[in-house]
Each structure stands twice: as structure tokens, then as C-alpha cells.
Design brief:
By secondary structure, the chain is mainly alpha-helical. The chain is built from 8 helices and no strands. Helix 2 crosses helix 4.
């Protein structure tokens, strides 16, 4: 627990940092960098990302020190809150990137196996097309509708959203879930 002398000392450090005092920043950095690192690591559970966020938070201390208000909290709370918020932002960014990557992979996969057989294709391709068409019929009505509109009619997700009067995010989710469901159904057949 921080006593009043420590809080006053830390407030003075932040005031010095806000006027560009590099020694004060180094002192503050040395005092809190391990706390920031451990706070971020608990959220991200990844050392490389934690190191990046920790460096970012310590840079923010330098940059935002003029905005620190001792009447709203103590320096420990201030730096801990910044660390937590930056870690959560990073986690959301990673999750968003992973989700986009998964969606792209799923769309590539569905494009590959929704290449319905055409005249002159091999018997094997014809059988695959039949399996895929029957798999699409096993989807729930909402998923089937968006998959058919997207992959068989060639509509964009935005066009589907407009035609069905459905939010774009809902269309994207239905397509993603439909693709994942198709992959499960078809995986056992090929």
C-alpha cells in the first residue's frame, strides 16, 4: 500500500516529468515498469505483446504527464489504469485480427469447395458438388439464404444486408457461422 509520502513523491515525479525532466521519468519508469508489465501480462498472457504494451504505457506516462490530476487519484492508480486499458485494447485488437483471419480462411475454404461441378468436370467433382449442395440445404434458413446469396448469386455482404433489410454485422456473422457449419458437414464427406 502506498503511504502519503510515497504518493507525494510520485506526484512530484510526474510534475517533473511533465516539464521534460528525463531523470524523473527514469526514476518513475524504474519504480513502475515491473508493475505495468505484470498488470499487462495478466491480461494478455503473451510476453512479446506485453513488452510492446508496457513500452507504450511508459511512453504515455511521458506524454500524458501534464494531464495527470492528483485530485482524481494517485500515480499508482493512474499508471495501473493506463496499463489495464492499453492491455485490453491490445487484446481486442488481437481478437479482431484473429477473427478477420478466420473469416478470410473460411471464405477461401468455402470458395474452394463451392466450386460446383460444370459440364465436362470429372465425376469426382460432380459428386463433390452434390455433397456441397446437399450440405447447404442442411443449414438453418438464415444461414442458407446468405450463403446462397453470397456464393451462388455473387452478391456482396452489403448488398445482402440491403436486400434482406438486416444489419451488415448480422449478415457477416451468419455467413461466418454458415461457412463453419458447412465445413463441419462437408469435412466428413470428402
Amino acid at each position: 500500500m502506498h503511504n502519503d509520502d510515497q504518493v507525494s513523491s510520485d506526484v512530484l515525479l510526474i510534475q517533473k516529468i511533465s516539464s521534460g525532466d528525463r531523470e524523473a521519468f527514469e526514476t518513475f519508469h524504474n519504480k513502475y515498469v515491473n508493475l505495468v508489465f505484470s498488470t499487462v501480462l495478466k491480461i494478455l498472457n503473451n510476453t512479446a505483446d506485453t513488452e510492446d504494451v508496457t513500452q507504450n504505457v511508459m511512453f504515455m506516462v511521458w506524454e500524458k504527464s501534464p494531464m495527470f490530476d492528483a485530485t482524481r487519484g494517485n500515480p499508482l492508480t493512474w499508471v495501473s489504469t493506463m496499463a489495464r486499458n492499453k492491455a485490453i485494447d491490445k487484446m481486442r485488437s488481437i481478437q479482431r485480427r484473429n477473427r478477420l483471419h478466420e473469416e478470410a480462411e473460411a471464405e477461401i475454404a468455402i470458395d474452394e469447395f463451392l466450386n460446383v461441378a460444370r459440364p465436362g468436370d470429372s465425376i469426382e467433382a460432380s459428386e463433390q458438388g452434390h455433397i456441397i449442395r446437399s450440405a447447404v440445404l442442411k443449414l438453418n434458413p438464415e444461414q442458407r439464404q446468405v450463403i446462397e446469396m453470397s456464393y451462388f448469386m455473387g452478391l456482396t455482404q452489403l448488398q445482402i444486408a440491403e436486400r434482406t433489410n438486416t444489419p451488415l454485422g448480422t449478415i457477416k456473422a451468419r455467413i461466418r457461422r454458415g461457412i463453419l457449419q458447412l465445413q463441419k458437414i462437408v469435412k466428413n464427406k470428402f
